[in-house]
Amino acid sequence: MYRTHTCGELRLEDTAATVTLTGWIQRIREMGGMTFITLRDRYGITQLVFDEHTPLPVSEKLHGLGREFIIRITGKVRERASKNPAMPTGDIEVSPGELEIVNRSEVPPFTIENDTDGGDELRMKYRYLDLRREPLQNNMMLRHRMAQEIRKYLDEHAFVEVETPFLIKSTPEGARDFVVPSRMNPGEFYALPQSPQTFKQLLMISGYDRYFQIVRCFRDEDLRADRQPEFTQLDCEMTFVDQEDVLNTFEGLAKHLFRVVANYEYKDRFPRITYDDAIKYYGTDKPDLRFGMKIAEITPQVQGSGFKVFDDAGYVGGITAGGCAGYSRKQLDELTAFVKKPQVGAKGLVYVKYHEDGTFKSSVDKFFEEKDFQEWARAMNAHPGDLMLILAGKREQTLSALGVLRNEMGNRLGLRDPDAFAPAWVVDFPLLEWDEQEGRYSAMHHPFTSPKDEDIPLYETNPGEMRANAYDFVINGVEIGGGSIRIHTRDLQEKMFHALGISKEEANAKFGFLMNAFRYGAPPHGGIAFGFDRWCAVMGGSDSIRDYIAFPKNNAGRDLMIDSPAPISQEQLNELQIKLVDQQNKKE
Fold this sequence. Notes:
Layout: E1 18-31, E2 34-41, E3 44-50, H1 56-61, E4 70-79, E5 92-103, H2 120-125, H3 127-130, H4 134-156, E6 160-161, E7 179-181, E8 189-191, H5 197-205, E9 210-218, E10 230-239, H6 243-262, E11 272-274, H7 275-282, E12 296-297, H8 299-302, H9 308-311, E13 315-321, H10 329-339, E14 350-354, E15 360-362, H11 370-379, E16 387-393, H12 395-412, E17 423-427, E18 432-435, E19 440-443, H13 458-461, E20 470-475, E21 478-485, H14 490-499, H15 504-517, E22 525-531, H16 532-539, H17 570-576, H18 583-587
Parallel strand pairs: 6-9, 11-17
Antiparallel strand pairs: 1-2, 1-4, 2-3, 4-5, 7-8, 9-10, 10-22, 12-13, 13-16, 14-15, 14-16, 17-20, 18-19, 20-21, 21-22
């Protein structure tokens, strides 16, 4: 028997019991004539103590032990003289009478503790060691719990879990596809799915009514903290529903997860924010509602004074940072440098300090009078003691920059509490957006999104003004999921393809199977897909999804642990009838 108990199980009521534990040595400490070993498994840690009462054969083995050795001990549980309230097992310790080395370990490349000394790249190379650390194990347990609770909730609401294929046809859905050569069909390729979109629509046409799947998806795109080339999606679809049916069903799921996973009770209805209002007041379609600091437009109030930056701008707006009138010149210079970063995109920053005595101090004092600043303060809901931060430029870019600045001020002022949750639905998105590079419209979500019924006539006259029957789910400024009511008639789908500049021939080649299915009584349907990794990270209070994926890739899309991607043999290339282009000749 390797163990009678786990390393996180023993408590004070187990005192005097004889137990067997097996685990990894996390730490060895020698204090005078005593040796303490912290023994770890995924359930927790238990302190072992070796003293003058320890049998000699056991004591002799201590000198050969090291970190990450796996040992098995049998001994008695006793009450600790110096208890550790930070440990669940901190009231007890075990005095071993027997000790066996189950397996030895080389010295690990970094300390396997909560606060490790290993950098990101090193820990990714030895991911199997990093996964032994308690924070990552807690993340994996949270992920497991969420998956189980999702399945439980959806099963109770009559959803059926159905798997869809990984080897599919390449279709234009926004990001690049990962492609897979077919040996049995030379010169032809599968694509890995960016999402099961068309398959879940086909399942609705097949009459399955309510479908879900926790599914792997693939996108060949540049990476950052919340993106991976392979990721997990909670994919859902329903028939005979409108937008409210979908939102109510999955708002229920979110509240269930808040309650059972995060112990967070959210009883109110989630806020519903239109896309236009989200951009207007937060500068983004994924607003963080944990704090206020709404964007206010002041274009009419500031133009006509002779200040060229404002007079030439298509939009002037700002945010009010409460209680920040005391910001130093150094802090204001830091904010100016921040908004000038390429990822923010502003050309400069205007500030106005609204002092407690009612006076104003601004970087544009020579262009404006006290009464001007008072008018700005009214428009921006500023009060004595506040700091007004103002940007100017083209409307879309300026609002986006203000949204980034708002979040930055939220961070600096400690307003973005990772233990708080502020969910919201963003609705009424534009159906289409103009692609300057391509010179045509592209779908804001995807080509199967239905427009609002009342906007359908605009296909012929003004397609850019159509609104989508679409919705996004946002928590704490992070887009967790998105979906829509789908197009379910062939005629309307053809109109959508035409608006996107997709010819009948291309539509038939790419989506002929779906268009044909529309001929046979396709029901009205809609659904939503959630980024499961991202949802786990938000529930765990993290900005990165990497720590909630067992074996993630780095920012170059590489798995440092198994050294992938990697070349394949010439024999494999020959079998697939693939010839590699010589990169040097290609450059020349």
